[in-house]
Automatic annotation (TrEMBL):
Its main location: membrane. This is Solute carrier family 5 member 1. Belongs to the sodium:solute symporter (SSF) (TC 2.A.21) family. InterPro entries: Na/Glc_symporter_sf, Na/solute_symporter. It comes from Sus scrofa (Pig). It comes from the Eukaryota. PANTHER family: GENE 5134-RELATED, SOLUTE CARRIER FAMILY 5. Keywords: Ion transport, Membrane, Sodium, Sodium transport, Transmembrane, Transmembrane helix, Transport. Coiled coil: none annotated. GO terms for cellular component: membrane. It holds the Pfam family SSF.
Length: 258
């Protein structure tokens, strides 16, 4: 079973934009993430289940906030949601605008209940509330299945797409690299390693978004309009190939909004 975008000639459109510096930055970032993960493995305790899954309950509020922010954003947002927003309008991100309200409900309503009950997951709370192991087991299996199918698969697919564009790697090799780097620090370092690497991700995303917004804010000049159209076309290409299985449209295809 192949991917609809696997045989699409990406390099014909984007290879000229990649330089040795681009490749060096991506490789350096991967090594930096792996280094932070390994540092977290050596510096944090994983002697108990609580240490592994909850980082010993020693995390500050801003670390948890950065983790929630970074873990909710992935390549599916940059390659898919951003592309759809460029081609269809900003309304496609409406479900993300509701996230702050849901997180407030989680923090002010459900978290105190979980803390008082001494649980950290919904399946475990339902087991403690209603009794029996079957409801906990069934919900855990259901959550894992839905998350793997609807979330992780998309993130792996779009992450492999990005590595194929930037590094020219085979999509299956890129998938193996992504899973290997992530698995090394996540499985061996536990929640602490994930939080520390997500702090890096959050910092890069916020800083990069601010700089990118400042650099590509369109003005009346023809050059800025051309750059805006090019960026939107590239995001539209990625989202179209991934989610609709269509061929890449010509680079000169007009994109509304610029």
């Amino acid at each position: 079973m192949g991917f609809p975008w696997y045989s699409t000639p990406w390099n014909a459109h984007l290879s000229t934009t990649n330089t040795n510096l681009d490749i060096l930055v991506v490789v350096f970032y991967f090594l930096l993430v792996l280094g932070i993960g390994l540092w977290a493995i050596l510096s944090s305790s994983r002697g108990t289940v609580e240490d592994f899954f909850l980082a010993g309950r020693n995390l500050a509020w801003w670390q948890i906030g950065a983790f929630l922010f970074a873990s909710n954003i992935g390549t599916g947002h940059f390659m898919g949601l951003a592309g759809k927003g460029a081609s269809s309008g900003i309304a496609v991100g409406a479900f993300e605008w509701n996230a702050p309200f849901i997180l407030c409900i989680l923090g002010w309503v459900f978290s105190p209940i979980y803390i008082k009950a001494g649980v950290v997951t919904t399946p475990r709370y339902l087991r403690k509330r209603f009794g029996g192991c079957r409801i906990q087991f069934l919900l855990a299996i259901l959550y894992l299945f839905l998350y793997i199918v609807s979330k992780i698969a998309v993130e792996i697919c779009t992450g492999a797409m990005f590595m194929k564009l930037v590094l020219g790697l085979d999509v299956y090799l890129a998938t193996v690299v992504l899973l290997t780097v992530t698995g090394i620090y996540a499985i061996t370092g536990g929640f602490a390693a994930v939080v520390y690497t997500d702090i890096l991700h959050a910092s890069v995303m916020v800083l990069g978004s601010v700089l990118l917004t400042a650099c590509i804010t369109p003005n009346k000049s023809k050059t800025s309009k051309n750059h805006c159209a090019l960026l939107r076309t590239m995001m539209h290409i990625a989202s179209t190939c991934l989610f609709e299985g269509r061929r890449i449209p010509p680079a000169t295809e007009s994109v509304h909004g610029c």
